[in-house]
């Protein structure tokens, strides 16, 4: 299920910010950032889920603190 259609995105691309946070299981041997650099929707930003997760706990992909978000 999509929140908006691809047609809607195309018509509104200059008024929205798209965030690509592609992430793949390690055994897939894929790199979301490299794929983003190779091809992405115009003006999309890349968000590194691993880099922006809480690194102080042993659970992967947990949201970081508010102070880290502000940085």
Structure report:
The structure is a single chain. The protein has 3 helices and 2 strands, in the order H-E-H-E-H. 0% of the residues are buried. Helix 2 links the parallel strand 1 and strand 2. The protein has a two-stranded parallel sheet with strand order 1-2. It starts with 5 loop residues before the first helix and ends with a helix. The longest helix is centred in the first third of the chain and has 7 residues. It is globular. The protein is mostly helical and 71 residues long. Helices cover 27% and strands 6% of the residues.
**Gap between N and C termini:** 33 Å
Q: What is the helix content?
A: 25-40%
Q: Which structural class matches the secondary elements?
A: mainly alpha
Task: Give the biggest beta sheet.
Answer: 2 strands, parallel
**Beta-strand percentage?**
5-15%
- Integer average pLDDT: 89
Radius of gyration: 15 Å
* Number of β-strand runs: 2
Oligomer: single chain
Coarse morphology: globular
**Run of helices and strands:** HEHEH
> How do the strands line up in the largest sheet?
1-2
